Amino acid sequence: MRSATITIHQDALAHNLQVIKDKTQPTTKVLAMVKADAYGHGVAAAVPALMDADGFGVACMSEALAVQDVLAQLKRTKPVVLIEGVFSYDEWLTAIEQDFGCVIHQDNQLEWALQSLPNADSFCRTIWLKYNTGMCRLGFDTNNIIQKAKQLIQAGYRVILTTHFACADDAQHPLNQVQIERFNHALQAIQAFAPDTQGSLCNSAGIFNFTAHHHHWVRAGIALYGSKPIAQHSATALGLLPAMTLSAKIMAIHQLHAGDSVGYGALWQADKPYQIGVVSIGYGDGYPRVVTGASVAITDTDGVVHSCAILGRVAMDMFMVDIDGLAIEVGAPVVLWGDTPHIDEIASCAGTIGYELMCRLTQRPNRHIEMLSSNA
Ligand SMILES: *Cc1c(COP(=O)(O)O)cnc(C)c1O
């Protein structure tokens, strides 16, 4: 069988959630963000490992229903929040029926909510009201956020005021303080007439950089998966473990002569006799074609792991690596990202971030779940 494999480490997910919980006050709840199929990890793999979270956040209704299915299989219930809210009145009715929490960020969603009220004791009866404090993506502006909160509260809703940082990964960026001040000001103004109003400000980066501003709910995404949330520290330095290993195998080995060139475009040329290996993974699996200076980790016949450079261009199904002078055979295991190299190293070789590499994996690789040890 061709070997291109995504392995999900449930223990690492559970560990990373605990790292986040250790950063937050016991009164702060953690919404585990599992949108985009749990950042490419698969909700079926991620949700069971994250059951210590207080709820799950998704982007849309189909994702919420997928999480609900996994929870049903586990015979458990947990709040599920649609972080962009519903896209139609029909979806709003489904949200009521399924008791999903919903963001309201614009007037059509507000009108649907005023048209049909969920039961008073339901989770759905609490609206995640989105305030645009400076990112200019979603939410009501400063001049009408209080008015929108009033309308909802007068209609019988509870409110969680929420906003999203634009630059939380860079603690020094001046926009952070602007967003924090706007948010705290509006939250206080709403609490003046509705004291049970809650707040939710921080994503992963905010959790680490703005510990004084966690409020009632934090929304943790990338840190759960073990990629770096903030600029000044690596994921490892923050105690986060990679939740995914992407691996393949050496599928062929060649002895090159001086002057031979490798791969599409003949971009790399041997200046002496060389041994190279062909790795059974490519951009058709989601490994980025645009990497420059990336390496992979290959285990030799003695079990020693070597860092080996990619030679030439990554193709759809394969690429070549430098294994000159190493005791590496066909079938040798190759790690593309995991403990080493770390996904954040490969992301920087590809001019992107760990988030994108996780999410752009395709359906082709084999998938394997390394189960929670507490369930073993
Ligand atoms: C995705 C998302 C998060 C999580 O962000 P991370 O940077 O992955 O922690 C938090 N809040 C909102 C609104 C999101 O869309």
In short, what is this structure?
The protein is an alpha/beta fold and 376 residues long. It is built from twelve helices and 18 strands.
Word description of this protein:
- The chain has 376 residues and is α/β, with parallel strands linked by helices.
- Helix content is 30%, strand content 23%.
- It is built from 12 helices and 18 strands.
- It has helices at 10-23, 35-39, 43-49, 61-73, 89-98, 107-115, 145-154, 174-193, 204-209, 222-225, 343-349, 354-359; strands at 4-9, 29-33, 55-58, 80-82, 101-104, 126-130, 158-162, 198-200, 217-220, 244-256, 261-262, 268-269, 274-279, 295-299, 305-311, 319-322, 333-337, 366-370.
- The strands form 3 sheets. An 8-stranded parallel β-sheet has the order 8-7-6-5-4-3-2-9. A 6-stranded antiparallel barrel has the order 10-13-16-15-14-17.
- Helix 8 links the parallel strand 7 and strand 8.
- Helix 1 packs across helix 3 and helix 7 (145-154) packs parallel to helix 8 (174-193).
- The longest helix is centred in the middle third of the chain and has 20 residues, at 174-193.
- It is elongated, with a radius of gyration of 24 Å.
- The structure holds pyridoxal-5'-phosphate.
Give structural attributes:
376 residues, alpha/beta, TIM Barrel, eight-stranded parallel sheet, elongated, binds pyridoxal-5'-phosphate
Show the helix and strand layout:
Layout (H helix, E strand, L loop, with lengths): L3 E6 H14 L5 E5 L1 H5 L3 H7 L5 E4 L2 H13 L6 E3 L6 H10 L2 E4 L2 H9 L10 E5 L14 H10 L3 E5 L11 H20 L4 E3 L3 H6 L7 E4 L1 H4 L18 E13 L4 E2 L5 E2 L4 E6 L15 E5 L5 E7 L7 E4 L10 E5 L5 H7 L4 H6 L6 E5 L6
Parallel strand pairs: 1-18, 2-3, 2-9, 3-4, 4-5, 5-6, 6-7, 7-8
Antiparallel strand pairs: 1-10, 10-13, 10-17, 11-12, 13-16, 14-15, 14-17, 15-16
Helix pairs in contact: 1-3, 3-4, 7-8
The structure holds pyridoxal-5'-phosphate.
